[in-house]
Amino acid sequence: MAERPKLSDDDLARVQEYLNSPIHRVERQPFRPLRLLLVLWVVVSLLGAASWLTARMMGVL
Q1: pLDDT per residue over 15-38, tens digit each?
Q2: What's the CA gap between 31 and 36, in Å, rounded?
Q3: Closest of 7, 28, 29 to residue 16, by C-alpha
């Protein structure tokens, strides 16, 4: 059984016009997973150091 398209030809034309408008054509930088990993590592390290310092100052360690 062939599926009928959910949108009419007029609707598809309007969708294409909307998606091709200049506001939706934004150049994005490439995804850099190593940079994300580095940022996450720095944040986790800083939070770990802060919790260690807090425990040290409170006399837990």
Answers
A1: 999 888 888 777 889 999 999 999
A2: 9
A3: 7
For the chain, list the strands marked E by DSSP: none
Q: Give the CA angle between residues 53, 56, 60 to the nearest 5°.
A: 135
- Identify the DSSP state of 59: T
Global pTM value: 0.57
Alpha-carbon gap, residue 53 to 39, rounded angstroms: 21
Assign 2 to helix, strand or coil.
coil
Distance CA 12, CA 5 (A): 10
CB 61 within 8 A of CB 52: yes
* Residues 10 and 18 sit within 8 Å (Cβ to Cβ): no
